[in-house]
Amino acid sequence: MASTEKLYIGTSGWSYRWQGILYPEDMKSADFLSYYATRFNTTELNRSFYHFTMLKTIEKWLATTPASFRFAAKLHQEVTHKRRLVDAEEPLEKFMSRFLAMGERLGPVLVQLPGSLHFDFGVAAPFFRMLREKYLAPVFALEARHKSWFTDQAQDLLREYDISWVISSAGKRFPKLETTTTDTVYLRLHGDEKMYAAAYSEEQLERYAFMIHDWLLADKEVWVYFNNTILGHAVTDAQKLRELLENM
């Protein structure tokens, strides 16, 4: 059995109407995070993509969860979707200045690119170089949604700058490449047949469990986030996946 010390499984956010699925029926939303942290050891912050998170909010999240709990933060859209990685130093610094306050509680920083953003060495290389010159320690994970990022040149560039490739599952909505570029593996599972809503089959979860088991045996750190949150399948799928791994 592989050690699960380097395994983090959770959902993309926690503030959903999951009463009866995860939360007790009478629970107030203010208590969701503390309860969530009794069931999972990590969460992925999607709200940080839309808003620059206030430091006092981050401090509240830290105080509400145990020291072992980790937060993956999705990089602000100003960097990825508006400036499209060009001249992005100012919003990047604004974002990182807040989340670095998490210290060791900060998991990977997710860099999700729009599907229209093709790989361009002249754009990607300077951006990755800036990331590593300014922030050597944090884990950065790239979710690209265009096949041009599947090339050897693009993947080698990720390896050169120690940027983790995100393995994403979104049915036929986005192309998929199941590979790793660092010792950190990041899975985003958006739902198979219907994004954000569809559950994963037992066979699909078993397949991911075997993949994760092998990565853990290879001493990789693995982060898994279920983003099929609309109907609460993220919760049940995450629990099933964890149980499969515990029984291996």
Percent of sequence in beta strands: 15-25%
Task: Write down how many β-strands occur, each being a DSSP E stretch of 2 or more residues.
Answer: 8
Radius of gyration: 17 Å
The level 1 CATH classification is Alpha Beta
The largest pleated sheet is described as: 8 strands, parallel
The percent of residues in helical segments reads 25-40%
Instruction: Give the name of the CATH architecture.
Output: Alpha-Beta Barrel
Structural domains: how many: 1
Shape: globular
Please report the number of helical segments: 9
Order of helices and strands: EHEHHEHHEHEHEEHEH
- CATH-level-4 superfamily name: Protein of unknown function UPF0759
Describe the structure in your own words.
With 248 residues, this protein is of the alpha/beta class. The protein has a single domain, classed as TIM Barrel. 36% of the residues lie in helices and 18% in strands. The chain is built from nine helices and eight strands. The protein has an eight-stranded parallel sheet. Helix 6 (121-134) runs parallel beside helix 7. The longest helix is centred in the C-terminal third of the chain and has 16 residues, at 202-217. The model has no long low-confidence stretch (mean pLDDT 96).
